[in-house]
Design brief:
The chain has 102 residues and is α+β, with helices and mostly antiparallel strands. The protein has two domains: 33 residues; 40 residues. It has one helix and four strands; from the N terminus they run αββββ. The radius of gyration is 34 Å and the shape is rod-shaped.
Length: 102
C-alpha cells in the first residue's frame, strides 16, 4: 500500500467560474440596454395632437366613425345642413367637406 499512485490533482474550476461571471455580466448589461432603449425611444404609434372640433350654435354631431386612426364626424345644423369632418390622427390633418343634399 505504500506504492499506491498519487491521486491526480483536483481540477481547477477557475475557467468555468470566469465564463459564468462573464456571461452573467453580459446578460445584465444587455437587459439594462434593452430597458434603456425601450424607455427612451419615441413611439411611432404615439397620437399627435388632434385639432379641436368646434361646433357652431345649433350644430350637433349626428354620426361618428373611426377606422385606422381616422376619425370621421357627420355634423348637422338646425336647418339640416350637413358637413363631414375627417381627422387623421397619424398626420394631425383635418379635412372638412360640406354635404349638399337636393
Amino acid at each position: 500500500m505504500e506504492n499506491e499512485p498519487a491521486a491526480p490533482p483536483a481540477p481547477s474550476h477557475a475557467a468555468a467560474k470566469g465564463l459564468a461571471l462573464g456571461l452573467g455580466v453580459l446578460l445584465l448589461g444587455g437587459t439594462a440596454l434593452l430597458i434603456a432603449l425601450l424607455v427612451t425611444r419615441e413611439s411611432e404609434t404615439q397620437v399627435r395632437d388632434i385639432p379641436r372640433i368646434e361646433l357652431g350654435e345649433g350644430e350637433r354631431v349626428v354620426s361618428v366613425s373611426s377606422d385606422d386612426g381616422v376619425l370621421t364626424l357627420l355634423v348637422e345644423t338646425t336647418t339640416n345642413q350637413q358637413r363631414i369632418i375627417v381627422l387623421d390622427s397619424a398626420t394631425g390633418r383635418r379635412t372638412e367637406v360640406e354635404v349638399h343634399t337636393p
